[in-house]
Amino acid sequence: MARLAGNAHGRWLCEGAASGDRQGLLRAGEQAVGARSRLLFALVAAACLLFGCNSEPEWHAVDISGSLPPLDFVLTRADGKTVTADDFKGKVVLLDFGYTFCPDICPLTLANVDLVLNALGDRARDVRVLFVTVDPNRDTLPVLKDFTAAFGPEVIGLRGDADQLAALAKRYRVAYSVTSARVRPYEVNHSSAIYVFDETGKIRLLLASLMTENPDVDGTAADLSRLVDEGNENGSGS
C-alpha cells in the first residue's frame, strides 16, 4: 500500500494522460516549451500510457508481506502422518489456529472459509487451509479429523505436542492459553487471525473478516485467486 501511495503523483499523471485531461496536459506543455520540448512531452505521456498505468491493485485483505517469517513447521496431520511446510509448497496456504470444541468463532470462521473456497471454483484445488489446534489435550487426531472433514478436502487438521505448538505460535505471534479443569472450568483462549502464504511459503496477507458474521467472501476470493494465478505464472503452482 505504501508503494502505491508513493506513486500517487505518477499515477495521477498517467490517469490524466489516459483520460480527457490528456489534451489539457499537452496544451500546458505547449505553452511552456518549444517544439522540441513538445515532442519530449508527448513521448513522456506515451510512455506513461504504456508503462506507468499498470500499478498493482490493492489487496482486500491486509498486506503483511515480509512482516513475518516464511511458513515452517513440523506437525501431525489428522490422519496420523507427520507433515512439514514443504508438503504444501506450490499451494496457497491459509494458516488458522483454533480448537474443535470452540462454540462459535472457530466453526464460523471455517464456514466462511468454505464459502470462499466455493467462490474460487477450480482455483480452490491450489489452496490449502491448515487448521492448527491450540487444544491438543482434547483434540485427538480422530476428533480433529471428524471436525475438519465437515469443511471440505482443502481443510487439513494439524496437531502438535506442547513444544511444537508453542514454537509455531511464537513464530507467528499467536497468543493462546488453556486452563485445566482441575483449577476451574476448562477454558481455551486464542487470538483470531488467518495468515495467508503464497506458493513459495512467504507470508502475504492477514485475513480478519472471515471471523465475523459479515465476511468479505468476494474480496477474499479475489485475493486468493490472484495469489493462485501468481503461482501458476511463476511455475510453482500445481
Structural description of this entry:
Helices cover 41% and strands 19% of the residues. It is α+β, with helices and mostly antiparallel strands. It has 2 domains: 2-51, no CATH class; 62-234, 3-Layer(aba) Sandwich (Glutaredoxin), CATH 3.40.30.10. The protein has an 8-stranded mixed beta sheet with strand order 1-10-9-4-5-6-2-3. Strands 7-8 form a two-stranded antiparallel sheet. Residues 1-55 have low confidence and may be disordered.
Write the layout of secondary structure elements.
Elements: H1 2-6, H2 8-18, H3 21-32, H4 35-51, E1 62-63, E2 74-77, E3 82-84, E4 92-98, H5 105-120, E5 127-133, H6 141-149, E6 155-159, H7 162-171, E7 176-179, E8 187-190, E9 194-197, E10 203-207, H8 217-234
Parallel strand pairs: 4-5, 5-6
Antiparallel strand pairs: 1-10, 2-3, 2-6, 4-9, 7-8, 9-10
Helix content: 40-55%
What is the total tally of β strands? 10
**Structural class assignment:** alpha+beta
Fraction in beta strands: 15-25%
| Mean pLDDT across all amino acids | 80
Provide the spatial order of strands within the biggest beta sheet.
1-10-9-4-5-6-2-3
Q: Between the first and last Cα atoms, what is the distance in angstroms?
A: 29 Å
Major sheet: 8 strands, mixed
User: So what's the CATH class of the largest domain?
Assistant: Alpha Beta
Poorly predicted segments: 1-55
Order of helices and strands: HHHHEEEEHEHEHEEEEH
What is the CATH architecture annotation of the largest domain? Answer: 3-Layer(aba) Sandwich
Q: What is the domain tally? A: 2
- Fourth-tier CATH superfamily name of the largest domain: Glutaredoxin
Give the CA-based shape. globular
Stated plainly, the CATH topology of the largest domain is called Glutaredoxin
Helix tally?
8
